[in-house]
Here is the input.
Amino acid sequence: MVTDFGRTPAGDRVLAIPLAGGGLAATILTFGATLQDLRLGNGRRVVLGSPDLAAYLGPLRYFGAIVGPVANRIAGGRFGLDGRDIALNRNEAGRTTLHGGATGFGERVWRLAHHAADRCTLALGHADGLGGFPGPLAVTATYRLLPPQVLEIEITGTAPAVAVFAPAFHGYWNLDGSPDILSHRLTIAADKRTPVDAALIPDGPPVDVAGTDHDYRSARPVGPDLDDNFCTGSARTGLRPVAVLQGRDLRLDVETTEPGLQVYAAARTSSGGFPGLDGQPFGLHAGVALEPQLWPDAVNRPDFPSARLDPGVPVTQVSRFRLTRV
Here is the structure.
């Protein structure tokens, strides 16, 4: 049964949507189209979240949300599109636009468009010029629970005029309930990453990971400072495996259509005293974000995979997260 999860400061009602199927159970919030909870059939939780809406308005902003129109950072909060200079809301100390700015997808209340036992679709209209982004955009996010223990997330955007669309699912994973994920082992199918400057904006073409601390082509513990976009392809394609996260007795396989995977070990992120799903606050490194997406600042880099959304031509991103006991 769909229930109330609270109201935003603006008075908008937020719904909590239960799903069950494929050996999993989940709860989706209409605020940010957020995956608030994901559990195995035995009740073990595998993502970070909170029972308190206020947490998602503060320190847990983006936790489990669909972010966009353009995920990650945009240099200087501006880009060019067909001869136009697009100036955006800059929500990172006035320097960059992060995850769509202050009015991005993860900051909005979506509409529940469809709900079945094992799936739901949420819809959002993003007006032309909102946060500075061209539009209007029509966006849907569909969560499905599939056998065997697979979470599938499908995000589609359409527009009647040229726009940009590069969303991401921003969930944080912890496979065994430990206080941190630094003993989890991670494998990433990428031999290059995008180097960044002090503002975490790419400052050159992709570089090799071989011989560096960024080489996760073979399984190794999650590094405490990990915050990188790994180049798992050069363009959107069909589903392909990009990463494996291994806990004590549980494995997560990630497949996506996207050419990048941003991995963040939560070195600067905690629940800030708000309760987690087990009722207790959590600290730094409590989860690792695995975010299938385009490469950061792609709207300013013609040599990166394109974020362009042409009129009447839908763009769809699909990611699957498969859990297996080992």
Notes: The CA atoms of residues 191 and 211 lie 11 Å apart. The first helix runs from residue 53 to 56. The mean pLDDT is 97.
